[in-house]
Amino acid sequence: MRDASPDQGRLEGDPPHPEGRQDAGTGTSSEPLLRVEDLRVEFATDDGIVHAVDGVTYQVSRGRTLGIVGESGSGKTVSSLTTLGLTRSQGAHISGRILFEGRDLVALSEDELRTIRGNEIAMIFQDPLSSLHPFYRVGTQLVEAVLAHQDLSKAKARERAVELLGLVGIPDPSRRAEDYPHEFSGGMRQRAMIAMALANDPKLLIADEPTTALDVTVQAQILALMERLQRELGMAIVIITHDLGVVAEMADDIAVMYAGRIVETASAELVFSGPEHPYTWGLLKSIPTLAGGREDDLVPIPGTPPSLIRRPSGCHFHPRCPYAQPEHSRIDPQLQPVPEKASHDVACLLESELRRRLWEELRRGCTPEQAREAVGLPAPPSATTEPGAAATQTGTAASGTSP
Amino acid sequence: MSAIEPAARPAPSPASAEPLVQVRELVKHFPITQGIVFQRKIGAVQAVDGVSFDVRRGETLGIVGETGCGKSTTAKLIMRLLDPTAGEVRFDGQDITHLKGAPLKAVRREMQMIFQDPYSSLNPRKTIGSIIAAPFAIHGLRKGKGERKRAVQELMETVGLNPEHYNRYPHEFSGGQRQRIGVARAIALKPKLLIADEPVSALDVSIQAQVLNLLRDMQRQLGLTLIFIAHDLSVVRHMCDRVAVMYLGRIVEIGPADELYAFPRHPYTGALLSAVPVADPSARREDRELLSGDVPSPANPPSACRFHTRCPKAQERCSIEDPPLQDKGTGTSAACHFPLSREEVAEIGVRSAR
User: Fold this and answer.
1) A116, A121, A126, A127 alpha-carbon torsion, rounded to 10°
2) Which residues are within 8 A (CB) of B154 and not within 5 positions of it... i.e. 6 or more apart?
3) CA A340, CA A331: separation in Å to the nearest integer?
4) Radius of gyration for the alpha carbons in chain A, expressed in angstroms and rounded
5) DSSP string, B67-85
6) Which residues of B touch A289 (CB under 8 A)?
7) For chain B, N or C: smaller number of CB within 10 Å?
8) Each residue of A115-150: pLDDT tens digit?
9) Which residues from chain A sit within 8 angstroms of residue B174, using beta carbons?
10) DSSP secondary structure code for residue B314 in this structure
11) What is the reported pLDDT for B286?
12) Integer Cα distance of A221 and A227 in angstroms
């Protein structure tokens, strides 16, 4: 589906690249390692066009970690798969630019991309068991990864494979290289996946929900391993997750995605200490904490994530937003810098002063309704306070979110 | 709301009242066999191996532990979905360990279960109405057509579903709403005991809170006793009065949630709590102590204390003498020869410690 030239690959009617646009991400080095500009990915399905990624801009600097947070169907996985060209064969319309060390990956041919994929950019996936081939020994699969990009003898590649297994903390690596994936535990399989990703010293590692399938003590081991490897090898990491705890532990910068767009991006400290978007507030208030009181009720976000085929008009979050105003269903918010806060961008139509006061109220433990009253904001036009209201927007939301 | 009015039942737990569920030395071993026609038993997966606890009326007991620790098997044994190898389960004063037929069916009416996966636990070919009405049909209750429909619609309203969606099918609902359907089905018969096995782990973050709040509301409204099984320690903290921590088929620590989170005594509980990532970058620690290795196989568990192979405090005694589960004087009971001290709890970075 993809054409060789980037311009032909773009959908008709799309705006030209916004060259001078404000960057998401807060890297300060002159040239970021990866720079995604106005990326759009659309899939044509029988039900309509799925707008999986809708104008996403972010960047990652060398040696830094970007955390992309979002729920299922927010476009966080598709945006990173597209970076590696893995959505090309699926009838996707891709536009925008993905600049890796200045080269536009969207414009590269499949052959050129193959020299980068698994070499300079590597990826690890959520489910390590289905990412490893059950039929081949772990060592053999590692050797294959090494030989794909390096001109080595088989024996040298084998040495490298064993060295990699040792690097990721697998005990007795030369013996374990002879094992099949089913003989590894879940945590060891994920270690093996990381070893495979590191085979060619990547500059960028994309980790898509790397610990979601793992137990909490094993998750802690894998996160610590990724941090150690980043320190030792100096690679940049993009970690994609729905778990706010994991990004808080790992990420230098955070991008929060909702319905295919980045709605908020800043350094991890800023996102957790002074979040600006009502969706981010909702996420933070809806998770129970270890130290939290048992009597505090959680404040869920009402409703369900929208269908990416028929997205809500205006601000995509407005049907679920407790602070939505009538005009928010018409005006589409842009990701803009927060006044007086360097390197904190948010896509929200509320006044920044109003947002600050709302978050102050929420932080003190108010419910969204109390916070709204405290700042004198009228209730949203279609106040969906009754929990059953969620039931009115089912069907499409349940079935249409993934391509 | 007549369908779900609290039944006349004793007020929750004065200390003297008999616990609703009493589990004693419960054991479940799954045989490992070899051969196709003539199967020889060559070993056993010791899924649950000598578990004892009580569930008091009206409380929420949390069971936490990692994959394969036996928490779901324990739940299924209580529900009698599995037959125990040894041990005893008493429900409401009655020994139900070996019940069969009609008496078992009568007991099952009093206990219901909510499953992890809202996608596979609802029959895709049945309407929501008939799914929620299934308990009535099974037990021959509310036989009139109009009466049954009314009861189901009341249940739907109670759990926050639109009663007009009575004739829709499961695929038309999102994950969170399907879990609501599961809750409606579970409370249809006004059970005394509800077992929720990982009820929110398949749901999106923003939806989890909706279902957790619903479960708590239902418990308050109906005076339910709840066994809440989860691997997420923050969720368990939020939901439970008491918590049991399981490791390789055994309970290693049990006690009131506040005490257990504030001052875990078993090194495994401490390790679990310190491993939980916390949504606060300012609390990030660089070099926390990590539990090394993986959970050993339940088919061949370590001798004596099953945690000794991974325990940072293990001594020789731990591999020889099995520590009993006993009161450690700080509110919880732990099965450990060398329980954690307050200094050690602070050192390993348990962020719920006080």
Assistant:
1) 50
2) B1, B2, B3, B4, B163
3) 24
4) 22
5) TTSSHHHHHHHHTTSS--S
6) 234, 237, 278-279
7) N
8) 999 899 999 988 877 889 999 999 999 999 999 999
9) 304, 390, 394, 397-398
10) -
11) 61
12) 10
- pLDDT at residue A398 greater than cutoff 50: no
Determine the pLDDT at residue A5: 41
The verdict on ipTM greater than 0.90 is no
Phi, psi of A361 (to 5 degrees): -65, -45
* pLDDT at residue number A208: 92
User: Which chain B residues are Cβ-neighbours of A251 within 8 angstroms?
Assistant: 281
> How far, in Å, CA of A81 to CA of A96, rounded?
14
Q: Is B113 helix (H, G, I), strand (E, B) or coil?
A: strand
Tell which of B166, B171, B204 to mutate to test the A interface (max A CBs under 10 Å): B204
Mean pLDDT score, A75-91: 88
Q: Which residues of A touch B129 (CB under 8 A)?
A: none
CA–CA separation, B97 vs B106, rounded Å? 14
User: DSSP letter string over A224-288?
Assistant: HHHHHHHHHH--EEEEEES-HHHHHHH-SEEEEEETTEEEEEEEHHHHHHS--SHHHHHHHHHS-
CB A314 within 8 A of CB A330: yes
Residue A382's pLDDT is 64
Q: Which pLDDT does position A396 carry in this prediction? A: 36
Q: Does B216 touch chain A (CB under 8 A)?
A: yes
pLDDT, one tens digit per residue, over A201-242 is 999 999 999 988 788 888 888 899 999 999 999 999 999 998
> Number of CB pairs < 8 Å for A and B?
180
Q: What is the mean pLDDT of chain A?
A: 84
| Distant-in-sequence, close-in-space partners of B197: CB < 8 Å, separation ≥ 6 | B72, B75, B113, B114, B115, B116, B229
> Among all residues of chain B, which has the CA nearest to that of A270?
B281
Mean pLDDT of B91-118: 91
The edge-to-edge listing of strands for the beta sheet with B21-34 is B40-55, B21-34, B86-91, B94-95
Helices (H) and strands (E) in chain A, counts: 15, 12
CA distance A146 to chain B (A): 27
Asked if A217 and B271 come within 8 Å (Cβ–Cβ), the reply is yes
* Domain architecture of chain A: domains with CATH: 31-120+202-273 (3.40.50.300), 129-199 (no CATH), 275-289+299-396 (no CATH)
Q: Which runs of consecutive H residues, i.e. helices, occur in chain B?
A: 71-78, 101-108, 128-139, 145-158, 175-187, 205-222, 233-239, 257-262, 267-275, 342-347
User: Which residue's entry shows tokens 């088919």?
Assistant: B299
- Mark yes or no for CB contact A387/B160 under 8 Å: yes
Tokens of A95: 């536009």
Report pTM.
Answer: 0.84
Is the distance from CB of A282 to CB of A301 less than 8 angstroms? yes
Q: Answer whether B174's CB lies under 8 Å from A398's CB.
A: yes
Q: Which amino acid is at B318?
A: C
In chain B, residues 110-169 whose CB comes closer than 8 Å to chain A:
157, 160-162, 165, 168
Contact A254, A267 (CB under 8 A): yes
- Residue entry with tokens 């003898």: A153
A292 and B234 in contact by Cβ < 8 A?
yes
Rounded Cα distance between A271 and A253, Å, is 9
Q: Determine, for residues B174 and A245 on separate chains, whether the beta-carbon distance falls below 8 Å.
A: no
- C-alpha to C-alpha distance for A47 and A307, rounded to whole angstroms: 11
Q: Which B residues in the span 175-194 are in contact with A, Cβ-Cβ below 8 Å?
A: 175-177
In contact, A31 and A48? CB cutoff 8 Å: no
CA pair distance A122, B293, nearest whole angstrom: 26
What does the pLDDT read at residue B154? 94
